[in-house]
Every structure is written in C-alpha cells, then in structure tokens.
Amino acid sequence: MKKLFSILPAFLLRAITASSQTPFTDYEYVDANNIKASVAMHGDLWWRPDSMDAGCFFPKTTKKNPAFVGALWMSGHDQMASLATSAQTYRYGIDFWPGPASVSGPLPYATSEKWARIWKVSYIDINNFKAQTTHTLTNTPAVILEWPAKNNPYAKGRAGAALTITTDMAPFVDVNADGSYNPLQGDYPELKGDQMLWWVFNDNGPTHNNTMTSPLGVEIKARAYAYTRGVGAINNIIFYEYDIKNVSSRNYSDYRVALWSDADLGYYNDDYLAFDSVRRMAISMNGDAIDGLNGEPNAYGSAPPVTGYTLLQLPGDNGTNYVPVGSFMYFNNDNTTMGNPQSTTEYSNYMRATWRDGIHLVNDYVGYGVNTKGRGVGPQTNYVFPGDPSNALEWSECQSVNAKGDRRMVLSSPDYAFNSGANIKFAFALVVTDTSHKNTCDSISFDGVKALADTAWKYYRTPLTPIGVSIQQLAIQKDYTLFPNPAKDVLQITWQGGNPDLKVYDVNGRVLNIPFHYESGNLRLEVKDLTKGIYMLHCTDGKFKISTTFIKE
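The structure assignment produced for this chain is given below.
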C-alpha cells in the first residue's frame, strides 16, 4: 500500500476527532470493458476506502492501476465575499455525503444512510426486462424495480431501505409519459453506455470537515458508464457525468469545479504529469523507462500505459463553443508550500494555479535538463507542463528531467457565476492507452492518448445505442383518460387507435380475462368481478399504445 501523506497535518487530526458520524465504505465497479474502476459512496473514485487501496485496474484482470484516487473539488465566493469550498481526498475529513441535498439544513445521517447506494444497471437488465410481455414484482430485475426515480413506489436504497422520491432524481424512460416512474407499467432506467452506475451526493451532510469551511450547498446527481464493444478504442474509456445544482440561497460569482486526482500509474513514486489544452486533458505517464525499477508490486514494468483525464463538458460551454480549462495544477505529497492543502484557502488556491502560500504558478522552464517546479523566475501561467515531451523548446517534465514522484493534480473549470437554483453539468472521461514500451520519456508520443480523448469526445456527444436496447417504435397515446378511477363496475378509456389488443394483469403478473367492448374512440371494461386492488392495463393496436394502472374499489 502506498504512503498517502508524509506527515498527517494537525487540521486532519482535528477533522478525524470532530467526525461523530461514520462514513460509508461501500463501493461499486464500472467493469464492462478493459478498465475496472470503482466508485465509492462519498463521491470518491478509483480506490477502495475500506482498505485505502487501489480500485482502478487496467487491464481489468490485473491488479495494476492506471489511476489511484479521484474526486470533485469546488469553491467560490458568495455575495458577501465569503469563501466556500468542498473537496474530498483520502477521507481524513468528509465534505460530501450520499443523498439529495436538504433545503432545510444539513442532511441527517439516517437519511444519508438510506441513500448510501450506487445503482448498477446494464443492457442485459434492460433487455431482459423489455423481453417480458408483462412486468411483475418477481420478474422485474431488482435494479429496475428499485431504481431511485420520481414517484417509484418500489425504490430502495442501502440495505433495502425504502425511499420516498417526489422530485426528479435518477433518469428513466417514461413509457406512458405520465411523469412518474413505475416499472410495472414498463418504465425502465435511462441507460447511457452498455453499463452504468448512478448515485447522488451533496456537500451539506452530517459533517463538512475536510476543507473546514461552510458548504456551498450543492447536490450532485452522478453517473459513470462504459461501452463493451469487443475491440476498439471505446473499450479503453469510462465516462463520468455530474449534474450539479446550487440548492443554497447563495450566489457564487467565481465558482469553480475541478477534478482532483492522485494520479498514480502503476508504482506511485515514479510519475510525471502533462497537459493538452486542445482536449482539455491532464495526462499521467511514467517518468522512468521502467515502471517500478525495483520490482514494486503491481508495477507495469517496461510497458506502461498512459492515462488521460479529458474534460468533456464545463460550465460555460455553449453548443460547439467550449471554454478553456481554468487551470491545471499539481502538488506534491508533502507538507511544504508545494504540498498537500491544509485549509479552505489552500484548496481554493490549487483550483486557481496558486501554491499554498498564495504565489501563482510560473513557467520556469529554461531548457533541457534543468529541473522545473513552477515557482521562482518566469511568466505567470495557469497550466503546468503544457509542452510536447519530445520538444526541447517546450515545457514538459521529460525535457526538464524532473525528479520522479508521487504527483497529485487539479484540473479546473474557469470561473462561473453559479446562482441559487441554477444547474450546471461537469463531465469527463478516463482514458487509458494500451501498454507499450514507447510510453516513457525516451520515446513517448501522446498520439495514442489524444486519439482516445478524441474518441471520448465523439461518443459523449453522439452516444452509441446500448446493445440490444432499441428505440420504442410505438407511439404513446398521451391524451387518454380513465374514468372512473377507482372503478367499481365499469372502467372507460378514451382510445385514438384502431381495434385494440387489450390485456389486464394483477400485481403478480397473471393475465386476467376481462370482458371489454370497443367503439370508435372508447373502450369499456367490465371490472365488477375483480377483487379490490391495483391492476395494470396494456393496450395497443400495433401503432399506438397505452400502459397504465387502475384501482378496483
């Protein structure tokens, strides 16, 4: 296991002592393609908080990690010029908690515990569901039945806890267009990729003691997804999307959202970083010709990959007009002025290309073989190591021949006015090249990781249809009425189609023999012999369809 901090700062000791609520160590994997990558309950990525060890593997059948830990960071000043910051690192304090944000104050621990679940769904689940002629409590896949969508009466969270959801939450395909999720009426999760995780978290939970400041008051609905397509670049990509809402009453004039990562590639202490402004991409590579010169466990040896983190959507993007990255910054695993942040101001500084002591990043590159740090003499810049590693005229770690080390990075959006009630989207992709002996400084080219980033951009904007999940071809009749409902003897339904195929099911999925009469524009069902309860009705003429429920009183 790697050494996370050189010395545990005093403020982190205070945070550990102050936390009276136990964080959740559950996690789930995206593992549909060549990468196996974990997501944990408090929004942390690529590690296992139960063991504080790697949770991201490439190839996925190995224990070699192309990334080690990642998380969201964000900060901004409100209208009173007060700084608010939220960030996760290694859980020496907890700023983010599972569950939707509460507008009335911090989310109670008991509520957060109910939401401490990551829902995992795949094209297999949905194809099996759609293959059923009717949907029951027993034949509906559990994740579809328990999907945390609006008004789902069967929604369940951690350890089977019932969830009451009255607002828009997890995305879904609304088969009967009634605005509510009910899987027994044919509704199912909206799937991106061939496998997807969905979860929700916020920064105003039981504690906010990592950055040691007030929370911003945001809710993050998140998903991670991947495609599995046999061969091709798409199999080396995982997508991450965050829908972020400001649920507080505060307006932030200079809000920034960032991706932080302890970007270990194989052996953690011999890495370099780089930056590609065109693709808004941070790059992690091995600094030595051999990853793990002394045979460290799970190192890649002479054939490491290159890992990229490309920002696909940022606040301020408009159509095909993409804002530039606000800053790309690094820091070291120590407690110097270039080391681990220890206050809310220092977290915010790193999101703005500024060191812990307030000194701005500079380009101090003067030529091949002269080590660079980003401090001292040189022009101010917002991006560290932006050069081509094979070009001696450009600033890179390869050309500087820097000491290899345990790099941490912060890839940030530009400033954005994030007002109360507003929504933004932050999306990125983790891309990992195939392993090669040409992925180190002696002969490295970024062509491979750039091609993967281009593929990620392409399929983020033009997603592939999940395997076997077809687009619904029947038109949904939206303007029908059922009356009376509840019904005692007769149920009438307005119907705009032709001669219908009508089926009624009980909650166990049994088809019931219900007499009905059809006249132009009207269906009349004889329900007097039904026992009291809830029933499902499906009606189609091959062109139009209705899927709904009714109550027999």
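Interim note for the steering committee: The CA atoms of residues 153 and 234 lie 36 Å apart. The two ends are 63 Å apart (CA to CA).
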